[in-house]
Amino acid sequence: MSAFAILLRRDLAILLPGGARGSAFLPLIFFLLVAVLFPFAVGPEPSLLARTGGGVLWVAALLASILPLDRLVAADRDAGVFDQLRLRGISEEVAMTARLIAHWLSFGPLILIATLPASALLSLSGPTFWRLLASLLAGTPGLAAIGLMIAALLASLRGGTALAGLMLAPLAVPLVIFGAGHLARVDMSGALFAGAFSLVLCAIAPFAAAAAIRAARD
Amino acid sequence: MHGFANPRRFLGLAKRLTPILLVVGLLASTGAIVWGLVMVPPDRLMGETVRIIFIHVPTAWLGMAGWMTIAGSSLALLVWRHPLAALAARAAAIPGAVFTAICLATGSIWGRPTWGTWWVWDGRLTSMLILLFLYLAYIALSQAVDREGASSRLPAIFGLVGAVNIPIINRSVVWWNSLHQPPSITTGGSSIDGVFLWPMLIAMLGFTCLFAATVLMNMRALLAQAQAEARLRRRAMEAEPA
């Protein structure tokens, strides 16, 4: 098995539900909690919820993606995992690519599944639900990529994770605009733009995260 | 450029350049503001409120130029390991954030009588607001890095990622919604009458000199602080009983 596949398997074993880090259900629960809180705050009128619910779930997905960041890179950095990999000739870029895929798999699909009950709670219509699902599928890899970069930047700072939300939200604005904008359109342009931006972020993230891990070494 | 990697040579130049920039900046910006507030006639459509552009436009330019300074210095730090680049990026962050905040505040004040509201979710306003949040995130990150003695390349990576994303953020919010007037000054020419254009350009020059002077003073203060700390450590070591 190639080194990349082994890395990916290890990362998945750690990050997926039931894994060693044990925080995989946290974003899911948080996401559903926002869907429950919102009707308490604005009132349970179905037409209002149906009109605004999709956007609220997009913001909930963004906020939920912040939760797993504190343990995404820092624990392995402290344990010297990346130094060991480097000594064995595996670059930080390869390790970060595997980590990016594992990170998305650990929270993206769960949020997509949770969209079904959340849509019911917010009285979203059938077509809106499918559009929301498509835009979240296109946008959550971008959220994972931004999250990975920020987790790597903050890995060497003790009080760093408090900054994660402040750093993630401005960078994720286009994802929310395109992703939530997709809900009110008839064509696929919103999801396609969100997907395009996600691809850009996924292309940058392994390099930026790897540079951050190397920078933290000296 | 590496000639100025030596802090002493840089300090020598900065010491001579700071007062020049400061005086030119103060004269040009005060002159342009007085010109704009007193001598320029009121606009046909906007009336007296047009005068705020003599502050609004230069601060908007410097809000963006501030991040370009951060991005350029970050690149110099990451690629060439230029030792002063980290200082330049840190020194530009707070002035850039302040200019962005002034731009938002003046735009908001201008919007109240003109558009009838303090804030609209217009593309350009929104992208300036997000830029302000990026500045705040950058400042918070570089302060955390400073406090813990971590590598100054960490904020530089964030600065570059931000610079790559700013055009996308800008396009996305403009695509989303736009009420702001289209660009008045393009490379093809200007749709602003000369009577407004000249004081505005001079104000831009003046504010830019002030920005540069602030960044240089900030860099000198950061260098002086590092030197003072090093001297204190050295003297404490000398004072240790052998």
TrEMBL record, chain A:
Provide the transmembrane region boundaries. Answer: 12-42, 48-67, 104-124, 130-155, 162-184, 190-213
Keyword rRNA processing: yes or no? no
Where does it localize? Cell inner membrane
How does this protein sit in the membrane?
A: Multi-pass membrane protein
Identify the InterPro entries for this entry.
Cyt_c_biogenesis_CcmB, Cyt_c_CcmB_bac
A Pfam family annotated for this chain is CcmB
Its chief place of residence is membrane
UniProt KW keywords = Cell inner membrane, Cell membrane, Cytochrome c-type biogenesis, Membrane, Transmembrane, Transmembrane helix, Transport
PANTHER family xref list = CYTOCHROME C BIOGENESIS B-RELATED, HEME EXPORTER PROTEIN B
Q: What does this protein do?
A: Required for the export of heme to the periplasm for the biogenesis of c-type cytochromes.
* The family this protein is said to belong to: Belongs to the CcmB/CycW/HelB family.
Protein name in the entry = Heme exporter protein B
Naturally occurring in which organism (per UniProt): Alteriqipengyuania abyssalis
From TrEMBL, chain B:
Q: According to its UniProt record, where is this protein mainly located?
A: membrane
- Report keywords, A-Z: Cell inner membrane, Cell membrane, Cytochrome c-type biogenesis, Membrane, Transmembrane, Transmembrane helix, Transport
The answer to whether keyword Ion transport applies is: no
Q: Which Pfam families match?
A: Cytochrom_C_asm (PF01578)
Q: How does it sit in the membrane?
A: Multi-pass membrane protein
What this protein is reported to do is described as:
Required for the export of heme to the periplasm for the biogenesis of c-type cytochromes.
List the protein's name.
Heme exporter protein C
Top-down, what is the taxonomic lineage of the species of origin?
A: Bacteria, Pseudomonadati, Pseudomonadota, Alphaproteobacteria, Sphingomonadales
Q: Which gene does this sequence derive from?
A: ccmC
